[in-house]
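Figure 6 in text form: structure in, sequence out.
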């Protein structure tokens, strides 16, 4: 048994703070959360004066199998699976070094994400708990086809979905619209699958109690994703051939459905703004703001691994993504909620992690300062526990590039 005491304990629910609080942990699980003295006695007591303890952060959208600099198409033929798996392990280590204790990997080739997920759970390597989608379902030559999930009609969609689930996928990813990064794919503003086809994916996942993440930039793809009943919409950029065009009626539909939206904002945002200019990013920020006003449930997820317009988006830039939510008008308490409780729920883990509650996994972080005052304090990590296991990585030297 171990007690962790801190000046502030945030449960994860909006604004809920226990001043001078403590958490009792037994192995991988939380036993109790309350004010000083509530946990009784324990041999191991950690006093964190001036610190805040909160649930481990959740990144609902990563690609550990990508490197920021190398074109995935070229590398597909040049990098072995063995080498790639080591790269993924390093990306997972960096992710946990930013305080991320759960991440959803939304696309990897050859089921390597499952190998990594299991190796982390066995303690062979350091990283967050992973929720793995394996091969994204996409049309022939469509967005990210090179990950092996091509399917054009209903029977083929069912087959790829079932194969992913048979291999051990925790959720399914479907490319409802086109996207950047794949030369042969339709553009972002074009739909790849209609509502009926998306429904097939949702149906297959639901029979195993799993959720579906739909990549959707285009208006029609966003609408179809809601109609089909997916769990999360990724990007949701309202993209057209002439840029972001926010549609309030469509946003109302998303809000009313309760579908989570992961707008995939990340630590590279400011650098992209410098390279590619203000206008497009401001338009996107306005969409995120407007979705907040409309009551859309947005969650944190960085799309880490994908370079955006040749700007790196490494896996440890997570807090930079939260700062973009602040730029879009979110308050710090809301940001903590969308980075913990809401993101965990969207990943299908609401019962297991995402808040500090008895019986949940001891996935938590401690930071110097108070993130409710300054979201940047989330960078001052003093402790990272993944299922009670200490995985602090702050002093590890690495040869791969990082962002703060
Ligand atoms: Zn992605």
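Output sequence:
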């Amino acid at each position: 048994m171990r007690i962790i005491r801190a000046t502030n304990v945030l449960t994860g629910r909006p604004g809920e703070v226990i001043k001078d609080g403590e958490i009792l942990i037994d192995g991988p699980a939380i036993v109790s959360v309350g004010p000083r003295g509530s946990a009784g006695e324990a041999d191991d007591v950690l006093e964190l004066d001036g610190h805040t303890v909160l649930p481990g952060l959740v990144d609902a959208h990563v690609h550990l199998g990508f490197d920021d600099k190398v074109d995935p198409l070229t590398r597909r033929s040049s990098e072995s699976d063995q080498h790639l798996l080591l790269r993924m392990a390093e990306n997972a280590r960096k992710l946990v070094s930013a305080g991320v204790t759960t991440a959803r990997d939304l696309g990897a080739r050859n089921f390597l994400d499952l190998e990594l997920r299991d190796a982390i759970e066995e303690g062979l390597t350091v990283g967050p708990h992973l929720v793995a989608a394996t091969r994204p379902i996409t049309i022939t030559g469509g967005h990210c086809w090179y990950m092996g999930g091509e399917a054009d009609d209903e029977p083929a969609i069912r087959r790829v979905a079932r194969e992913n689930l048979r291999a051990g996928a925790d959720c399914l990813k479907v490319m409802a619209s086109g996207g950047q990064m794949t030369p042969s794919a339709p553009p972002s503003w074009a739909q790849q699958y209609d509502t009926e086809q998306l429904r097939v994916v949702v149906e297959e996942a639901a029979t195993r109690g799993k959720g579906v993440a739909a990549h959707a930039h285009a208006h029609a793809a966003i609408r179809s994703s809601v109609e089909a009943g997916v769990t999360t919409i990724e990007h949701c950029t309202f993209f057209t051939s002439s840029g972001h065009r926010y549609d309030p009626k469509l946003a109302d539909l998303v809000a009313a459905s309760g579908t989570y939206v992961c707008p995939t904002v990340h630590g590279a945002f400011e650098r992209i703004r410098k390279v590619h200019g203000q206008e497009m990013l401001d338009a996107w920020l306005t969409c995120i703001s407007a979705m907040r006003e409309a009551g859309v449930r947005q969650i944190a997820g960085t799309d880490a691994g994908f370079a955006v317009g040749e700007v790196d988006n490494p896996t440890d830039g997570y807090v930079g993504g939260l700062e973009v939510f602040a730029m879009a008008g979110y308050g710090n308490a809301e940001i903590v909620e969308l980075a913990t409780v809401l993101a965990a729920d969207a990943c299908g883990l609401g019962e297991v992690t995402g808040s500090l509650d008895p019986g949940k996994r001891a996935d938590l972080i401690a930071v110097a300062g108070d993130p409710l005052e300054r979201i940047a304090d989330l960078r001052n990590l003093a402790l990272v526990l993944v299922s009670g296991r200490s995985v602090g990585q702050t002093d590890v030297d690495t040869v791969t590039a990082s962002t703060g």
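Caption detail: The chain has two domains: 2-55+356-390, 57-346.
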